[in-house]
């Protein structure tokens, strides 16, 4: 039996919105300790490659913080929690006070479907999961609609509306989709990618990590550093 949610990982999206820095920025950060400003600026590209590779191979990590990425990510709330456990990053996310949360949620992925479909009541539990997600989202949307009517009729004010709307967000499933902007420097991102791209990581956070990597490569911001980091298994 084939799951109707085989391609559910495609609901996860990553976009690299902005960057700062380059391979040269990494090299110039390292040269600060040994060269004056004029000498740093005059160094040829071959010296940039040599220094970036040396820094990666000898684990001189601080200069890699000269490259910064800003990612927009759409993912289930439960996966967002995993992203937020990483210590060195700056995060901004959706506010239940100012936005009504979207109602789409993460359905049963193929591997979970395959596990459950062959156990007693497994198919029933799959359907119950979806029914519960739908029911809580319907309740939330109806509650927000009624709150908006109460506000428009003067029964509550705007501040009270936002307070209750934010509170009611708590009923939503952990697999509802959410949005996040995360800013990481290259050193922190390499550590994130090393941990979250491993095969024993949860498939959904692997998807986030791999989409991040694809976006970073596509940007062409620091190809020398990326090649050097990959050669060193992303340890920096």
Features:
alpha+beta, single chain, Gyrase A, domain 2, 236 residues, flat, four-stranded antiparallel beta sheet
Description:
With 236 residues, this protein is α+β, with helices and mostly antiparallel strands. It has a domain at 8-106 and 177-231: Gyrase A, domain 2 (2-Layer Sandwich). The chain has helices at 23-31, 37-41, 45-57, 77-84, 110-116, 122-152, 158-168, 186-196, 203-219, 223-231; strands spanning 13-20, 68-76, 90-93, 177-185. A four-stranded antiparallel beta sheet has the order 1-2-4-3. It is flat, with a radius of gyration of 23 Å.
CATH topology of the domain at 8-106 and 177-231: Gyrase A, domain 2
H/I helix tally: 10
Helix/sheet category? alpha+beta
CATH class of the domain at 8-106 and 177-231: Alpha Beta
Relative helix content? 40-55%
Name the shape in a single word.
flat
Strand numbers in spatial order across the main sheet: 1-2-4-3
Major sheet attributes: 4 strands, antiparallel
Strand tally is: 4
The H/E string reads EHHHEHEHHHEHHH
Low-confidence stretches: 1-6
Task: Give the rounded overall mean pLDDT.
Answer: 92
In quaternary terms, these chains amount to single chain
Radius of gyration (CA) equals 23 Å
CATH architecture of the domain at 8-106 and 177-231: 2-Layer Sandwich
Q: What distance lies between the first and last C-alpha atoms, to the nearest angstrom?
A: 45 Å
């Amino acid at each position: 039996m084939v799951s109707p949610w085989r391609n559910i990982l495609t609901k996860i999206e990553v976009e690299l919105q902005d960057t700062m820095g380059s391979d040269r920025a990494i090299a110039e950060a390292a040269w600060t300790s040994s060269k004056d400003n004029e000498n740093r600026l005059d160094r040829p590209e071959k010296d940039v490659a040599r220094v970036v590779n040396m820094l990666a191979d000898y684990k001189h990590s601080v200069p890699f913080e000269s490259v910064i990425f800003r990612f927009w990510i759409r993912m289930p709330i439960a996966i967002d929690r995993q992203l937020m456990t990483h210590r060195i990053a700056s995060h901004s996310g959706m506010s239940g006070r100012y936005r009504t949360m979207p109602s789409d949620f993460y359905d049963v992925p193929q591997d979970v479907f395959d596990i459950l479909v062959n156990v007693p009541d497994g198919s029933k539990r799959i359907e119950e999961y979806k029914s519960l997600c739908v029911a809580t989202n319907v309740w939330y949307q109806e509650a927000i609609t009624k709150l908006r009517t109460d506000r428009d009729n003067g029964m509550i004010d705007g501040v009270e509306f936002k307070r209750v709307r934010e509170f009611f967000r708590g009923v939503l499933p952990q697999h509802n989709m959410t949005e996040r902007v995360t800013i990481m420097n290259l050193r922190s991102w390499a550590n994130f990618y090393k941990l979250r791209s491993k095969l024993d990581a949860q498939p959904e956070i692997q998807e986030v990590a791999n989409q991040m990597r694809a976006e970073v490569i596509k940007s062409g911001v620091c190809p020398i550093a990326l090649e050097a980091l990959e050669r060193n298994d992303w340890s920096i």
